[in-house]
Amino acid sequence: MLKLPGDIAFVKTRKLSVSETLTPPNSTDRLGDAIAIAESAFIAPSAKPAKQQIRSSLKASTYDSIFSTIFSCATGDVLLSNFLLKLGATSVEIGYLAAIPMLANFLQPVGAYLADRTISRRWYNFRVFSPARMLWMILVLGIIGFGAHLFEAHQLIQWTLLISLFTHTCGAMGSASWVSWMAVLVPRRLRGRYFGLRNSMANLTNLFCVPLLGTFVSYWGGGTIQAYSLVLTLAVLAGIVSLSFQLLMADVNPQAASEAIAPESGSVPQPPTFVNFLRDTNFLKYLFYYGVWMFAVNLSLPFFNVYLLKDLGLDISCVTIYSSLNAGANVLMLLIWGKLADHVGNRRVLLSVGILVAAIPLLWLGVNTDRLSVWLWLPLLYVLWGSAWSAIDLCSNNLQMAIAPIGKSSSSYFATAAAISGLGGALGTTTGGFLSQYASFGGIGGLFILSAVLRLVALLPLIFVREPGRQSPSLVLP
């Protein structure tokens, strides 16, 4: 059981007015009670701690991550890429698909601006994430029409891209608000361990979910396209369940949160100016690192699965097994990285592991269809990839939370970081999609080499980023 420090309290509200203390739901409460519970539990700007409410919220957030992972497995990565490839999508279209969530991140500052002017993180997120989950049922209907020869394959590809664009747009409008919500609920000194645990549960779900769904799609008697429509239906149901768990989490009032969380960290709340980050040189250094890093990573990342499925001709069930190995390694290493980050700092972990991540694209150059590659080299490569990438994901998020100020303007920091990430990632995937088609450039192999070099270059600005609570980077380097 995590020991939680107290500096905030929860009070019950009805129609957004504070009235009485809320008793948190226990683990046996039905999801049907979520709406009733959701009308309560706002964080007050002062008073004593209520540790049980925080624990209940973190438990609900963990369950949310499990079911949202099921949704993400079906609507992204290898399963969605395989679906589009079966419809005849080109590498450029796959690059567009990978660039969509990153382009949508440009709307995160808008979402942060709107969310900071509400009085409920919970209900704002519910309104923007619900359409993002439900919209995929349109694609299910489209696949049914395709099976009845009412639509052509290219039309279905266009539908998929448009639905992906809209759903990621909705998600981008709520992402910064969600991060701000979690930054309040999770005490600073426990973030490494809690998010390590939360991400481990999500990746454990991914470990079992991806190969099972991939095997189902591969061996379904009605064909892979029809099977994917059934997978999408399951994913939408899982997405609804994940939102139900969000309704069980204690709500946060952005108007009061800046005063409520100041005692926890000892920080002085920043004025609620949306563009505070423009005067924060430390954060601007981080943005420069983050943007270049996302460009370098996404120059090659979306094309690993394309390389296996299209260029090498491997079966989807085989590729999903590799993905499960990636998730398994991620699960095993997340708790270790979380504890290490709490001990030595997130910046040091990012620098050390970033060098390893930079070398990974080079290790793909020797991959082919021989037995050594299929049964040994590729599994080891995915295990290494999952182990290293878990540190990058965890520590990047924690470093953002550490360097962002306390207060309402924190959402603008998170949203700006996501927008810069989206810009770099979208440029990377789009550039990679075009470069991979030119034989004179070396195809995907040349793309992997360029990505490795740029990843190393991207680490240089991170050396000069200062992490609060750690020694100055000019004095101590990893």
Task: Identify the notable features of this structure and list them briefly.
478 residues; 19 helices; 70% helix; globular; disordered N terminus
Describe the fold and architecture:
- The protein is an all-alpha fold and 478 residues long.
- The protein has one domain (10-464): Growth Hormone, Chain: A (Up-down Bundle).
- Helices cover 70% and strands 2% of the residues.
- It is built from 19 helices and 3 strands.
- The protein has a 3-stranded antiparallel beta sheet with strand order 2-1-3.
- A hairpin with a 2-residue loop joins strand 1 and strand 2 (17-20).
- The longest helix has 33 residues, at 153-185.
- Residues 277-478 form the Major facilitator superfamily (MFS) profile domain.
- Its main location: membrane.
Question: What's the arrangement of secondary structure elements?
Answer:
Blueprint: E1 10-14, E2 17-20, H1 34-38, E3 42-43, H2 51-74, H3 77-86, H4 91-104, H5 108-115, H6 121-134, H7 136-147, H8 153-185, H9 191-219, H10 224-247, H11 254-260, H12 262-265, H13 281-298, H14 303-311, H15 316-344, H16 346-363, H17 371-403, H18 410-435, H19 443-458
Antiparallel strand pairs: 1-2, 1-3
Helix pairs in contact: 2-9, 2-10, 3-14, 4-8, 4-18, 5-8, 5-18, 6-8, 6-10, 7-8, 7-10, 8-18, 9-10, 9-15, 9-17, 13-18, 13-19, 15-16, 15-17, 16-17, 16-19
Q: Quote the average pLDDT.
A: 79
Q: What is the overall shape?
A: globular
The amount of helix comes to 55-70%
Query: Strand sequence of the main sheet, in spatial order?
Result: 2-1-3
Report the total helices. 19
| CATH architectural name | Up-down Bundle
Subcellular location: Cell membrane
Protein name: MFS transporter
Domain Major facilitator superfamily (MFS) profile: 277-478
GO molecular function, one term: transmembrane transporter activity
